[in-house]
Amino acid sequence: MKLGQNFLWGGAMAANQCEGAAFEDGKGLSLMDKIPDAEHGRKEVLYQPHLTLQKDHGSYPSHEAIDFYHRYKEDLSLLGKLGLKAFRTSISWSRIFPLGDETEPNEAGLQFYDDLFDECLKQGMEPVVTLCHFDVPWHLVEKYGSWRSRKMIDFYEHYCEVVLTRYKDKVKYWMTFNEINMMTHIPFLGGGVIIGKDEDFNQIVYQAAHYQLTASAKATATAHRINPDFKIGCMMAAGTFYPYTCHPEDVMAACDANSRNYIFIDVQMRGEYSSYAECLFKQMELTLDILPEDLVLIKANTCDFIGFSYYSSRLTSAHPVDVKIADGNAITTLRNPHLSITKWGRQIDPIGLRVTMNDLYQRYQKPLFIVENGLGCEDVLANDGVHDSYRIDYLSAHISEMEKAILLDGVHCLGYLAWGIIDLVSAGSGEMDKRYGLIYVDKHNDGSGSLKRIPKDSYYWYQQLIANQGEIIY
């Protein structure tokens, strides 16, 4: 199968996982700069920040990451030679507004992204930019409680106004928040929200999510005013829930899980909360600060496309007794006996990508954009490179199912961006040894390494795939 010339083959990274330079050129601390590596308590900080943030954990991988801040020209040159048509990254909010609530931006931060986007365009790559990718300025967390506060909407709107205006002639594709549904799974990662053990978890996360949804609508309105040609996307962590068995109760459990996972994207794509969401909020006895003007704003400013990450399908049951659990990386799922699984708990399901694409497209009838898909695993660097045939198998299987969704099922998809196109710090585990890249970075969990970049076998495979417009050569 082949896709057209306009299909955006590309790769994806995120500022907090690749840039480093956490204290350079006026940048302020972000929430990711307060999260240590796996060995020094990352899981505890992610899931219990109210208990662990006061400690000095000693090792913070985002502070250097892979030093993309100083090496971006070298890296983008490698990606240009790969043949990428699109490169996804994010803007670090605290690089533009170090505290987050200032009036005037940091010019050095703005200039960095000017130079970065110029280099992308020079290499023939369309920038795809996430405005907030798990990257809230730390000052906003400390002073306002981050997205627990309605004040965040104005701070975010001001930040968006500045960067959308600055880069209006360099960036066409934008996404407002990364994996917005992560708020209900890891609220500290999803938005810097810290919840005490005696607080109502659902009340806080759905309120914070509403403020994010309102802010997203404001950013969408601002973007379309600044440049009507902008394409503004939402972004979700996707993966259809399957029923564990064909028992009607299991089917209903999967229906419920999928409806819950779509709550925020329903708002961003349809312009209103679903009747399912309204019933759920009543059942949870939530009292949410939702103003009439919020709903008017949201209704008038839906997104242009659905960006999503896909790593695996999910599995659920009405009676999950004596069923194995898979880690699932943030989203708990039952163990699917028909799928293989990675060391880090992700089940591999290429057909699930096609299922998910069909579900999303039939639900919203707006273009999709696969902005993350990839395999995190341990790679071995040999004298003659990295022979990652397992990654080639993974990518080819998923791309094949994507092409079936497009060419056989009629799904409209803008592009495919391989996640972690260059090895970077894992957001979940904080490790370097959980590698996604098609380019190896000589850096390890303990921080050692030369940071040298080395293309893997998968790099050359993807290069050929792009040159052949998606025709997979086995």
List the helices and strands and how they pair.
Elements lengths: L7 E5 L2 H4 L23 H6 L1 H4 L15 H15 L3 E5 L2 H4 L10 H16 L3 E5 L7 H7 L6 H16 L6 E3 L11 H5 L9 H26 L4 E8 L2 E3 L4 H14 L1 H8 L4 H9 L8 H9 L4 E6 L3 E3 L8 E2 L6 E2 L5 E2 L5 E2 L1 H15 L3 E5 L16 H19 L5 E7 L19 E3 L11 E3 L1 H11 L7
Helix pairs in contact: 4-6, 8-10, 10-14, 15-16
Outline the structure in words.
The chain is an alpha/beta fold and 474 residues long. It contains 17 helices and 16 strands. Strands 1-2-3-4-5-7-13-14 form an 8-stranded parallel beta barrel, surrounded by 5 helices. It has a two-stranded parallel ribbon with strand order 6-8. The model has no long low-confidence stretch (mean pLDDT 96). GO terms for molecular function: beta-glucosidase activity. This is 6-phospho-beta-glucosidase.
| CATH architecture heading | Alpha-Beta Barrel
Poorly predicted spans: none
The CATH superfamily bears the name Glycosidases
Q: Give the strand order of the largest sheet, numbering strands 1, 2, ... along the chain.
A: 1-2-3-4-5-7-13-14
Outline:
GO terms for molecular function: beta-glucosidase activity. By secondary structure, the protein is an alpha/beta fold.
Labels describing this entry:
single chain; 474 residues; alpha/beta; TIM Barrel; 8-stranded parallel β-barrel; two-stranded parallel sheet; 17 helices; Glyco_hydro_1; GH
